[in-house]
Specification:
This protein is an alpha+beta fold. It is 20% helix and 26% strand. A hairpin with a 4-residue loop joins strand 1 and strand 2. The protein is elongated, with a radius of gyration of 37 Å.
Length: 461
């Protein structure tokens, strides 16, 4: 073999060896390549996918605020191929058994989950401000925004919802990739607390559907539960709702009968109403055990008379009748249904969690509500003291009311007489409490012994 041929053979062998070495190196490099990704399992969990598949066997993971691991990173055992994400704006770090640290992502992945707490009131009054409870879980960008489908109904001011007018608006919270929404219903069937009862019209008509009546009942129930059912605050919440938040005055309707066996006329729902919630729809009739003129729910007239102008707010002053006629069939049948004084107080207590039984107002020598709690005659010392609380009762012969607010200078009392349920603010002076002469309040019934617990009591609304 010539020298030239020997050299060519050697070069060929070297080339083959180089090719074989290159292939071996490629195989080694490819076999050593590590790939890490993830997939979403549910709202809060991800599964790590790695190559090789056992890369993180006996390894660790950490969720941190920083894109690179810091001293505060808490490493947790990575016993399986998935884990739950907690919080938001987090980075995920993984560490294998040899201590090598890997970033699951070079940037924050979009694993953001938004949930609006739907435990809301069924409807809200105009001017109410609402702060939504928004839960943000997962990891991802926090470029969230809030929008309203109708700003004229519910506006958004500094992430606070402001109810503008009756209607329904859909509130959306999220970004381009993920969001949640909730409907907010705004109503004029109840208002923010308004102590001025003089401008409220007497309820003399149907004001809502059965569905809306149920929603009002739920609002009332929620307010009582938040205040404390079977506590002083629960009764006060019921009294304040009817006196301050319901936009109508219930007409005075002298009781046309009682459920107590001692009374010959059985009646429930005319002058007195022994049930939970407002009496504003026909489906409440199923709860009425006995009636005289009805059943008719609050605001409806028992006797239809097209000759009368029912649009006048002073219709309760029926032409040709005197206060002494109250109780006569003709007088009652021409009035819209409502509550008498003890019926009003009974309703407040019953909805707040206390059944007073079939008690009237009571008075000198008669059994009734005047025997509840501690009866204290009104004098300057009592009026200047801090003994009187919202939820206490107040009365004079055959009449009863309930305290709905107190502050350093005034006491607010709600009761019902010929002009319907009203609220009156009294100065803490005898002169103020004696201004109605023989119809002035004479005593308070301090009710601590009846309530036992105050609940989430506030002296003012």
């Amino acid at each position: 073999m010539t020298e030239i041929m020997k050299r060519k053979s050697l070069i060929a062998i070297l080339c083959v060896l180089l090719v074989l070495i290159g292939i071996s190196l490629s195989v080694l490099l490819l076999s050593g390549k590590k790939e890490i990704s993830y997939e979403i399992i549910d709202d809060k969990s991800i599964r790590v996918i790695s190559s090789p598949s056992d890369l993180f066997k006996d390894g660790f993971y950490c969720i941190d605020d920083n894109p690179v691991t810091g001293d505060q990173c808490k490493w947790l055992p990575y016993d399986n191929d998935s884990f739950t994400i907690q919080g938001n704006d987090r980075y995920i770090h993984l560490k294998d058994a040899k201590g090598n640290i890997y970033e699951l992502n070079s940037e924050k992945p979009d694993l953001l989950y938004i949930n609006i707490d739907k435990d809301l009131y069924p409807m809200y009054p105009v001017d109410k401000k609402i702060e939504l409870n928004i839960n943000v879980n997962g990891i991802g960008h926090n470029d969230l925004n809030m929008s309203s489908s109708d700003e004229s109904i519910v506006a958004i001011e500094n992430n606070v919802l402001v109810c503008k007018k009756p209607g329904t608006a859909t509130i959306r919270v999220g970004n381009d990739n993920v969001s949640d929404s909730v409907d907010i219903i705004v109503t004029d069937l109840y208002t923010l607390p308004d102590e001025n009862s003089d401008h409220k019209p007497i309820l003399k008509e149907t004001i809502c559907t059965s569905e809306e009546a149920h929603m009002l009942d739920e609002v009332l129930s929620r307010k009582i539960e938040e205040a404390g059912y079977q506590t002083r605050a629960g009764v006060v919440a019921a009294a304040r709702f009817l006196a301050l938040e319901f936009p109508y005055k219930l007409a005075y309707f002298a009781e046309s009968g009682r459920l107590d066996p001692a009374f010959s006329t059985k009646c429930d729902g005319e002058g007195r109403y022994y049930h939970k919630g407002l009496y504003l729809s026909e489906d409440k009739y199923a709860d009425i055990s006995a009636s005289v003129y009805g059943p008719k729910y609050w605001g409806l007239f028992f006797k239809e008379d097209t000759t009368e102008d029912h649009s006048k707010d002073d219709y309760y002053l029926v032409d040709g009748f005197k206060p002494s006629d109250i109780g006569s069939d003709l007088y009652l049948s021409k009035r819209p249904n409502g509550l008498d004084c003890s019926g009003h107080v009974s309703w407040c207590y019953y909805n707040g969690g206390f059944d007073l039984g079939d008690l009237g107002a009571g008075g000198p020598g008669s059994h009734g509500m005047n025997e509840l709690g501690e009866l204290v005659m009104i004098d300057e010392e009592l009026l200047k003291s801090d003994r009187i609380k919202a939820g206490d009762l107040v009365g004079f012969a055959s009449h009863i009311g309930i305290v709905i607010g107190v502050d350093e200078n005034y006491i607010w009392i709600s009761d019902t007489m010929i002009s319907g349920i009203k609220n009156v603010r009294y100065e803490r002076t005898l002169e103020s409490f004696n201004q109605l002469g023989e119809n002035s309040w004479r005593y308070f019934m301090l009710m601590d012994s009846e309530y036992k617990e105050d609940g989430n009591y506030t002296p003012m609304w």
